Amino acid sequence: MASANTHRHALALSLFLIVGVHILGSHKVSANCKEIVPSLVSNCSRFVRVPGPKVPPSAACCKVAQAVTVADVPCFCKLITPAVQKVISMEKVVYVARTCGLPVPPGTVCGSYTVPPN
To answer: What is the C-alpha to C-alpha distance for residues 20 and 37, in angstroms, rounded to an integer?
Structure first.
């Protein structure tokens, strides 16, 4: 069973989608990626959790998500492990990103997830 800490740290698209700050310490990441993760977790995690329906993200979530740059995507994708994918929905991460106006090209791979065509 995943701990509450794992659930809390799982967001960093994610997408940007959602990962733990403790995971960041063990990977080389861009400064922007490392700075954005806590805000993504606090503002966007409820929109990308595995259980529940797709829900449009809040303005606060989109504001943080829009700070993610194309250069940050590989950073976030490195952090998407099988454990992370058990608690966040990569489909919802892509939905949130696109709803917030971020281009997520089909074929982008994060963890074991490949973004399908629009």
So the answer is: 8
